[in-house]
Design brief:
Layout lengths: L3 H19 L11 E12 L3 E11 L6 E12 L2 E7 L4 E3 L4 E11 H13 L4 E12 L5 E12 L8
Antiparallel strand pairs: 1-2, 2-6, 3-4, 3-5, 3-7, 7-8
């Protein structure tokens, strides 16, 4: 009679190889990072468009560094799409730390002027923003993680340097 352990040996070997090849990610839980809008600054203004420097922060709640392949985002001001884009190159967010990166986005002057005029008529000094997107984290960690952030930006931030 054949030993039952011998019959299971190929199956057990396969399981061991799968666990080893998947690395340590199998054994640790990855918490999603928190992505927030830090700054929005007018860089350039022309007749038809304006360019803004947008600073985003990614906070890592994990006890290990997160290798970010890219971040895709959309930023809406007062419900209208202001900008969308991707981070330019991969980066790593340290364990229990954060990383900031800047992107330059372009917007239509006409659309923004309509909003600004309406807000000034209402006496408002803040713009409501929503940001959503996803971060592609090295596949051995978590894959794609979605995020959302919202808040208000002072209207003065859109007026640029004085």
């Amino acid at each position: 009679m054949e030993n039952p352990v011998r019959r299971l040996a190929p199956f057990l070997l396969l399981i061991q190889l799968l666990v080893i090849s998947s690395g340590c990610a199998v054994f640790r839980q990855t918490e999603p990072p928190d992505v927030s809008l830090v700054n929005l600054q007018l860089e350039d203004l022309t007749l038809f468009e304006q360019r803004y420097r947008v600073t985003l922060r990614i906070q890592n709640p994990n006890a290990f560094a997160l290798p970010i392949d890219r971040v895709h985002y959309e930023i809406h001001l007062e419900g209208d799409l202001l900008a969308q884009g991707n981070s330019v190159s991969p980066f790593t967010v340290p364990a229990h730390g954060d990383a900031r990166f800047d992107v330059v986005v372009t917007s239509s002057l006409m659309r923004t002027a309509r909003h600004a005029a309406r807000l000034l008529e209402q006496g408002r000094t803040q713009l409501r923003y929503e940001m959503k997107g996803y971060a592609d984290i090295d596949r051995s960690f978590a894959g794609r993680v979605h995020f959302e952030d919202s808040g208000e930006i002072p209207l003065a931030a859109l007026q640029g340097p004085r």
